[in-house]
């Protein structure tokens, strides 16, 4: 093959790998299981609230490095202690400090920090990576978002589905690779209902009926 074409192929490979930073094996596997579209309130905010807001949330007294990740304008702005960098550059993993820090193995660089006693799972890292890659869209609190009727998701185990609500439950179970549990017997269902409505277990007559 002529040298020119070899150089061209090498350049293309270099550009492609430069545009798509490599993920650790466990994160790459988790990434493949994610839905095509992530929802900030459903998928991303719970992770940030649980693992990031303790040091980079709205509480100024606990804020580290002057960084807030709960508001887009702050997350996308130049870092107070390093103005040449940003925590999140929507759609650009390479320029997003959050991307590099959540995947780092360096205890002095990784986030969350070891002394926080918080740790991101491979699944959580994959969600944050995909969210940034897809544009890092923030949304208002779900209570302020007008509800929309979602499309009923397709599932593999269609025989298990009895009504459209089951599709949403089963979709999540299949994502987590968990089998659905067996349907509870009538006595158990009655007990749950009675405890929820009255705070008391059902009577023997109610069970017999």
Walk me through what this model shows.
- The chain has a two-stranded antiparallel sheet with strand order 1-2.
- It contains ten helices and two strands.
- Strand 1 and strand 2 form a beta hairpin.
- Helix 2 crosses helix 7 (122-133) and helix 3 (40-51) crosses helix 7 (122-133).
- It has helices at 3-19, 25-32, 40-51, 53-56, 72-76, 97-103, 122-133, 164-175, 186-198, 204-208; strands spanning 78-79, 82-86.
- With 209 residues, the chain is mainly alpha-helical.
- Helix content is 45%, strand content 3%.
Which terms summarize this structure?
single chain, 209 residues, mainly alpha, two-stranded antiparallel sheet, 10 helices, 2 strands, 45% helix
**Topology, number of strands:** 2
SSE order, one letter for each helix or strand: HHHHHEEHHHHH
Describe the biggest sheet?
2 strands, antiparallel
Helix percent band: 40-55%
Number of distinct helices: 10
Average residue-wise pLDDT = 89
Strand content: under 5%
Distance between the termini: 83 Å
Overall, the morphology is elongated
Q: Ranges with pLDDT <50 over ≥5 residues?
A: 5-18
Gyration radius, rounded? 23 Å
Enumerate the strands of the largest sheet in spatial order, edge to edge or round the barrel: 1-2
- Secondary-structure-derived class: mainly alpha
């Amino acid at each position: 093959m002529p040298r020119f074409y070899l150089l061209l192929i090498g350049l293309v490979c270099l550009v492609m790998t430069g545009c798509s930073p490599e993920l650790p094996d466990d994160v790459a596997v988790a990434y493949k299981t994610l839905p095509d579209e992530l929802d900030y309130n459903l998928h991303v905010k719970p992770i940030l609230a649980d693992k990031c807001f303790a040091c980079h949330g709205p509480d100024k007294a606990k804020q580290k490095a002057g960084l807030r990740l709960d508001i887009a304008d702050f997350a996308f702005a130049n870092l107070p202690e390093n103005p040449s960098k940003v925590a999140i550059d929507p759609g650009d993993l390479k320029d997003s400090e959050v991307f590099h820090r959540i995947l780092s193995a360096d205890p002095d660089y990784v986030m969350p920090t070891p002394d926080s006693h918080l740790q991101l799972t491979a699944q959580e890292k994959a969600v944050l990576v995909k969210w940034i890659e897809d544009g890092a869209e923030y949304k208002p609190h779900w209570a302020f978002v007008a509800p929309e009727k979602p499309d009923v998701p397709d599932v593999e185990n269609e025989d298990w589905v009895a009504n459209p609500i089951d599709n949403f439950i089963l979709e999540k179970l299949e994502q987590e690779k968990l089998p659905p549990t067996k349907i509870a017997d009538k006595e158990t269902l009655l007990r749950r209902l009675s405890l929820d409505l009255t705070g008391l277990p059902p009577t023997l007559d109610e069970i017999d009926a």
